[in-house]
Each structure stands twice: as structure tokens, then as C-alpha cells.
Write a structure and sequence with these properties.
globular, single chain, about 55% helix, mainly alpha, Arc Repressor Mutant, subunit A, two-stranded antiparallel ribbon
């Protein structure tokens, strides 16, 4: 599955539970945008985010119960914990590249929500302009998890996954959704490369991982965007002929680098 062990990946923020927030929600992009506008920077603790949602009601939810449910789902999707590499670096790039918001949120969701992780690649395998109905997605999920979901839950999951991919730009339309291709930004490519690096890819292989494919990006375009991200100081990208090296000194702590290389 991954060259890094599951335990290490979980410390970075990856999750491997069998379910996910898409049984009840999309990837909650608007709520995340509002929350990160309200709580600035990468230094705030998870408790600060929870307080902002549940006590300050920064997301303008009507009841205490709704605020609590919202908190739970946002933590499922993003952790809201700056001690976790996935969330800390989402915030880091979020603040520096507004165009990357829907796409890095999608990538974070992809590695934290099992249902979405299984289903999204299937939907994204459709050609541009192809119709993607809820029924098609329902059937795919039922085939993958036979008998696991009730008819109502299956409908909800399919609607939510299609809704997420519509918000990210991978699908277009309301009643009739069609496959569309997105245009990633330097920030989204930097985040995709980071995910590949955390899961063990190195060198040129970083540009053909499932995370870069989620961004509808060719290898050549991803390399061009990585060069821009490097010039901005977000990552370090070096290329000499066919030799490519990508490092993340501004995104990973010494402790996280030690986990990657098996050092205490």
C-alpha cells in the first residue's frame, strides 16, 4: 500500500478507518474557509479551533448540537491539529496560495476519508464531459462494499462525494453532473508532492503519485508548478537532467523528518 508504515502515516495525519465524514457531509469547504479566516496562522492549538466553532460560533450554526457535530466532522476531515503535518501544512499553503484552497482540502480529505479515497479515483477516471450520475456512484460503492449501507445511506454518500468533487471543480452541473478538469496551482502541487513524500515516493516518482493524479496534472505541468513553489520558498526543487530531488525543509519538523528516516 505505502512504503511508510501505517503507524508513521497516522502520526502525519493519515487515517485508515473504514468510514468517513462523507456518510453525512461533503468536505465542508465553506466551513473550513470561514474557520481558517477566523483562526489565523499555524500556531493555534486544536482547542482554539474547537472554541471558535462551539463557543464563538464563528460558523454561525443554529444550535449547540449542530456546532458539536460540525466540529466532529471537521476533525474527521482535517484534524484541526497543527501538531499534525497534514493540517499544519494545509494552513501554511492555504495562507500563501488562495487558489489552492479547494484542492489541498480535497487532498487532505482523500487521505483521511476511506469512502472518498476508494470512490474518488473511479469518478476521476471518467473522461472530460462524461456524465457522472448519483446512480453510477451508488452502484460503484455498493459493488465495493456489498450490503454495507442502507439505500438511504448509499444515496447520501453518493450525493456527498459528488458534491465534494463539484466544489473542487472536478465535476460540473447540478442535476446533471459532468466530468471537468481542474487547473492546479503551485500550492496544491506542493501539497500533493508532500503527501507523496510522506508515503515514500522520491525523485521523479513524486510527480506520478495518486495525489498528483487527483489534481488532473501531467508530469510536465506538475514539474513546472513545483519550480514555482520552490522559487516561493515553500519547497526545495532541484533538477539536473533526468535527476530530480524534492525536499520539504519548511514544511516538516526535525521530528517528522526523523520519523521518515527511522531516526529518534
Amino acid at each position: 500500500m505505502h512504503s511508510q508504515t501505517q503507524d508513521i502515516l497516522e502520526q502525519f495525519g493519515f487515517t485508515f478507518s473504514k468510514s468517513g465524514a462523507h456518510t453525512a457531509r461533503t468536505y465542508m469547504l465553506e466551513d473550513l474557509e470561514t474557520l481558517l479566516q477566523y483562526v489565523k496562522g499555524t500556531q493555534s492549538s486544536q482547542g482554539v479551533y474547537i472554541h471558535a466553532i462551539e463557543d464563538d460560533n464563528c460558523l454561525n450554526k443554529r444550535t449547540k448540537k449542530t456546532r458539536s457535530i460540525t466540529t466532529r466532522h471537521l476533525i474527521e476531515l482535517y484534524s484541526l491539529n497543527p501538531e499534525i503535518a497534514l493540517f499544519r501544512n494545509l494552513v501554511y499553503l492555504w495562507d500563501r496560495d488562495p487558489e489552492c484552497h479547494p484542492h489541498i482540502a480535497l487532498l487532505c480529505t482523500f487521505v483521511r476519508d476511506a469512502l472518498f479515497r476508494v470512490t474518488a479515483p473511479y469518478i476521476l477516471s471518467f473522461k472530460s464531459g462524461d456524465v457522472v450520475t448519483r446512480g453510477i456512484v451508488e452502484q460503484f460503492i455498493e459493488d465495493k462494499f456489498p450490503g454495507r449501507f442502507s439505500e438511504a445511506t448509499l444515496k447520501s454518500v453518493a450525493q456527498n462525494i459528488n458534491g465534494t468533487l463539484t466544489k473542487s471543480g472536478h465535476l460540473q452541473g447540478k442535476a446533471k453532473k459532468t466530468r471537468s478538469h481542474i487547473r492546479p496551482s503551485p500550492g496544491s502541487i506542493a501539497y500533493g508532492l508532500l503527501l507523496g513524500y510522506l508515503t515514500g515516493s522520491r525523485g521523479p516518482l513524486l510527480f506520478s503519485t495518486e495525489y498528483i493524479k487527483m489534481l488532473d496534472c501531467s508530469v510536465e505541468s506538475a514539474i513546472a508548478l513545483a519550480l514555482i513553489a520552490s522559487r516561493k520558498g515553500w519547497i526545495v526543487f532541484k533538477r539536473i537532467g533526468v535527476i530530480i530531488d524534492v525536499q520539504f525543509p519548511n514544511l516538516l519538523t526535525k521530528k517528522e523528518q526523523g520519523l521518515i528516516y527511522g531516526k529518534d
